[in-house]
Design goal:
- The complex is a heterodimer of chains A (210) and B (615).
- With 210 residues, chain A is mostly helical.
- Chain A is 64% helix and 0% strand.
- Chain A has 7 helices and no strands.
- Chain A has helices at 31-35, 45-59, 69-90, 92-102, 120-138, 142-172, 178-209.
- By secondary structure, chain B is of the alpha+beta class.
- In chain B, the strands form 6 sheets. In chain B, strands 1, 2, 3, 4, 8 and 9 form a 6-stranded mixed beta sheet that branches. Chain B has a 5-stranded mixed beta sheet with strand order 15-10-11-12-16. Chain B has a 4-stranded antiparallel beta sheet with strand order 18-17-20-21, with no helix packed on it.
- Chain B is globular.
- Classes of the chains: A mainly alpha (210), B alpha+beta (615).
- Chain A binds chain B through residues 49, 53, 56-57, 60-63, 65-66, 76, 79-80, 83-84, 86-87, 110, 206, 209-210, and chain B through 180-181, 221-224, 309, 312, 315-316, 375-377, 382-383, 386-388, 412-418, 421, 440, 473, 475-476.
Chain lengths: 210, 615
């Protein structure tokens, strides 16, 4: 890409190295590129927070309140990208899904094409859990729902741990370990079901809260 | 400091004059500016008052009165005097809240916007009424600075939805202000505290104003204010405390269907009672010949359910932020209603610590807004501090079966964007209707409808084949724009969401044109109205004095006075404000002997019965 202002070549950095003007967001930049940290499962959370703050201070639209419309637009785009990157990377569950997506498996896609098939035994177990939750909801038994949530949270963390191990193996192999990728997909598939369950309990708690 | 103290310093970097912060409140509004490095509120009403009552009176003869004068007319002209207009911002006429304060006359036209029927002209929208308040603030700040004020940061409750924000921004435009930024009131309050103290940590801002309640959890680290979560109730505030008292009083009076002016009077008495109960344990409330004693214990019992409602919202905000009450470094109180002792006690109990209160809770929001205005316009301060705000309510789209699908969840840091892909469900379907909603509830009918639009021109395809990507972009003011694009063909539609209950751009433009055309007219009408109000007050006063001291003037003096009174009365019925002013000048002279003698009698009366030694 070339800088809109001085026509020199720009890299992934948010500012043009030559003239210091805000650059357009490079197409294909990952959230890791955006936040300026190496791609990986294990992220230095302190560094993430620091990078996020420092980049926000430079890129935020408040810094360009009096700039011309083009720079204001670029600032909005860059900050939007930065906020999205921060949101995804700071949370271990979202970060794992995102890494899996970078490895070519998108579990979030609506058509479910890359979701793979979950083992039948697991699906049956989830259905049983849901039935119990439904009963608790009808009985307005928040305590029972919260007890189940505690159990499910433990299992979600377990599955997340497995997914993280598999993703580490996949990344260490330089993107060649197909088995690790499959393990990561299955483990995150489980995380997905557990997360949904926890969200439903949270919604129930919220209803109860008023 | 003299009014002209800083006028000599002409700053060439400020071609647009002072950038101010405005707290456009339900009950009172304030304007502040950073002066010599410190935020300060500017006097905006009679008697150098810093609080301008958010009351707008529309006079029969045309013209508009804003502030304390307008407030004084609320009881006698309840339908022509709009109070608490903020509660109507961005609301539809069908909204239950719209009818709750029901003594206004609403225009029953086709529009989707609330319109008040008032004297002296066309029905007015809440945006125009708020615009009058902002215009008054702008003008009074300008006369204080003897310089232009064209840029402002305006605060809104964190819980304001897209429609209410848009309406506030439009009101600013109508008042001739460039709205640099809308910021959330709690965030502004934290900004006022944060910069003064250079503190770090996690803070809760508990903001209970006249009409709205907000709670925000903020984190301040190395100059970056990050809003972690926010919550609130846009229909809960000190006015509800007044109403709680007024309802009981009207009940005791046996008034099942009180007149609008009795309601207004009772509300005023209730407010006064509430304020007195901050320092007293029992207050005698008097209204329309009825008296009733109200104890602080009664009052606390009546408002308890209201105060408890804030607790639910606080717990949710803490939870969204992932913060335990014990992890907070401070609780900041904002809004006049936090003066109520029961509220303070409740907050202390809820958060397990005494709240901070060293900045006046009425001023703190305006002061913070002034800081933000200064940060945005003052190049030297650019690196000092940055505010990262969030959207208060989830944004979504209606999907099959009237279910709301969240596209951007609440408490996402802004600016933010998100996209969702939808498909067609009928053979050859060539258009798709999109319904943008805001809120946390599952069903669309329980959420706030923001906009509807249609993506047309989709080429015929079997069901499920089209891929329509709907992208939401929220800017740094929290205002949403939506783009829909069919990905295989590139057919696209883009709208900046003008909320269904707002005004169209054309309507705003027209109002701006009208206000410019009528500006001259308006000034004259306003002057006339102000003089009429003065005249009314003087005449009432005079009649009272003459009734008390009927023989105080001799025949010649009395004749002169009567002639002057007649002249004022005639001028006040006319259309020339200057004529009223002149007549009042003459009257002042003619009433001089009266004033002097009344004064002497009062002093003599006070001295009577006391020996000189006592003084």
């Amino acid at each position: 890409m070339t800088c809109w202002n001085c026509q020199s070549a720009t890299g992934a950095a948010p500012f043009c190295a030559a003239c210091g003007k805000l650059a357009a967001r490079p197409p294909g930049a990952t959230h890791f590129d955006t936040i300026g940290l190496p791609r990986g499962m294990d992220l230095d959370v302190g560094a993430l927070e620091r990078q996020y703050r420092e980049l926000s201070l430079k890129l935020h639209p408040d810094r360009f309140a009096h700039a011309d419309p083009r720079e204001r637009r670029l600032s909005l785009e860059q900050t939007t990208g930065l906020n999205e990157a921060y949101k995804v990377l700071k949370e271990p569950v979202r970060r794992a899904f995102y890494l899996l997506k970078l490895e070519g498996v998108d579990l979030e896609r609506e058509d479910g094409s890359s979701r793979g098939s979950m083992p039948l035994a697991f699906l049956e177990e989830v259905m049983a859990l849901r039935e119990r939750l439904e009963e608790a909801r009808e009985a307005k038994d928040l305590d029972a729902a919260q007890a189940m949530a505690g159990e499910v949270l433990t299992r979600q963390q377990e599955a997340l741990g497995q997914a993280q191990d598999a993703l580490r193996a996949r990344l260490a192999s330089g993107g060649t370990d197909a088995d690790a990728l499959q393990r990561a997909g299955l483990a995150l598939g489980r995380v997905r079901y557990f997360t949904r369950f926890l969200e439903e309990v949270a919604a129930m708690e919220e209803e109860a809260l008023g | 400091m003299s009014k002209n103290g800083f006028l000599q310093i002409h700053d060439p970097l400020r071609p647009k004059g002072h950038a101010v912060g405005i707290d456009l409140g339900t009950t009172n509004s304030l304007v502040a500016a950073v002066i010599q490095g410190r935020p300060r509120c500017v006097p905006v009403d009679e008697g150098e008052a810093l609080l301008l009552p958010s009351v707008v009176h529309y006079a029969t003869a045309g013209g508009v009165v804003v502030g304390a004068r307008a407030k004084g007319l609320a009881a006698s002209h309840p339908t022509d005097t709009i109070v608490s207009v903020k509660r109507f911002m961005g609301r539809s006429p069908e909204d239950p809240e719209t009818r709750k304060l029901g003594h206004y006359r609403f225009a029953s036209d086709k529009g989707k916007v609330v319109r008040f029927e008032v004297s002296g002209g066309q029905p007015v929208t809440p945006i125009e009424v708020s615009g009058e308040i902002l215009r008054a603030l702008k003008r009074r700040a300008e006369s204080h600075f003897a310089g232009k004020v064209e840029q402002a940061v305006i605060t809104v409750p964190a819980y304001f939805d897209d429609a209410q924000r848009q309406a506030t921004k439009d009101a600013g435009r109508l008042a001739g202000l460039e709205v640099l930024r809308l910021i959330n009131e709690p965030t502004a309050a934290a900004l006022a505290y944060g910069l003064d103290k250079g503190s770090q940590g996690t803070f809760a801002v508990y903001d209970l104003g006249g009409g709205t309640f907000d709670i925000s959890i903020l984190q301040l680290v190395e100059g970056v204010f990050q809003v972690k979560s926010t919550g609130g109730d846009s229909a809960l505030g000190g006015d509800d405390f007044d109403r709680a008292i007024a309802e009981r009083v009207l009940q005791v009076m046996g008034q099942a269907s009180p007149t609008p002016s009795l309601v207004a009077e009772t509300m005023a008495a209730a407010r006064k009672t509430k304020e007195l109960l901050t320092h007293e344990s029992v207050v005698e409330l008097a209204v329309g010949g009825h008296t009733q004693s109200v104890s602080r214990a009664d009052f606390e019992l009546w408002i308890r359910p209201l105060v408890q409602r804030t607790g639910l919202v606080c717990r949710r905000a803490l939870r969204d932020a992932g913060v335990e009450p014990g992890q907070l470094d401070g609780v900041i109180l904002v809004g006049g209603s936090t003066r109520v002792p029961a509220v303070r006690a409740y907050v202390a109990e809820l958060f397990g610590r005494e709240p901070l209160g060293d900045i006046d809770p009425d001023q703190v929001v305006a002061l913070g807004a002034a800081v933000q205005a200064d940060l945005l316009t003052n190049a030297d301060r650019q690196d000092e501090v940055l505010l990262l705000d969030v959207i208060p309510l989830s944004l979504g789209l209606e999907t099959m079966g009237g279910v709301a699908e969240k596209v951007i969840p609440r408490n996402s840091t802004i600016p933010i964007a998100a996209a969702q892909v939808f498909t067609t469900f009928q053979e050859g379907q060539n258009a798709m209707d999109l319904h943008v909603v805001q809120g946390e509830r599952e069903l669309v009918e329980d959420c706030r409808s923001l906009a509807r639009f249609r993506l047309s021109g989709i080429p015929p395809m079997p069901p499920g084949m089209a891929r329509v990507e709907v992208k939401f972009q929220v800017d740094a003011d929290g205002i949403l724009s939506v783009t829909a694009k069919e990905q295989s063909t590139g057919v696209s539609q883009h709208i900046t969401v003008r909320p269904s209950h707002g005004l169209t751009d054309e309507e705003i433009e027209q109002m701006l044109l009208d206000s410019i055309e009528h500006a001259e007219d308006d000034i004259q009408k306003r002057q006339l109205r102000e003089q009429q109000v003065d005249a009314e007050r003087v005449l009432v006063d005079l009649r009272k004095q003459l009734a008390t001291f009927p023989d105080i003037l001799d025949a010649v003096e009395r004749a002169r006075l009567d002639a002057a009174v007649e002249r004022v009365t005639q001028a006040a019925n006319g259309t020339d404000g200057n004529a009223v002013k002149e007549a009042l000048g003459v009257l002042e002279q003619a009433s001089q002997p009266l004033v002097e003698r009344v004064m002497n009698q009062a002093i003599a009366g006070a001295l009577k019965g006391h020996s000189v030694e006592e003084y």
